């Protein structure tokens, strides 16, 4: 009898977790997509951001900081990554496009 109660409780737990997960997925799929289509220039900036910045640390979501907060970060990190002005502008344009 004890085993049946344990199995029934486990089954209820799994069903409850499964239904919540489905509801969460359903709510996220109904939201309109805010993803900006990337132009070739922005795609190049994204690639530079991902390839140069990830060498030293984890990548931050561009929305984590404002444009004003990103400005000194990009300048400082651009120097450390030895990016030229064109490359830094490309990364900056990509970050700004994601805000």
From TrEMBL:
Keyword Calcium: no
Matching Gene3D superfamilies: Cytochrome c-like domain (1.10.760.10)
InterPro entries: Cyt_c-like_dom_sf (IPR036909), Dihaem_cytochrome-c (IPR018588)
Domain of life: Bacteria
UniProt keyword annotations, A-Z: Signal
Pfam families per the UniProt record, alphabetical: DHC
Signal peptide: 1-23
Name of this chain's protein: Cytochrome c
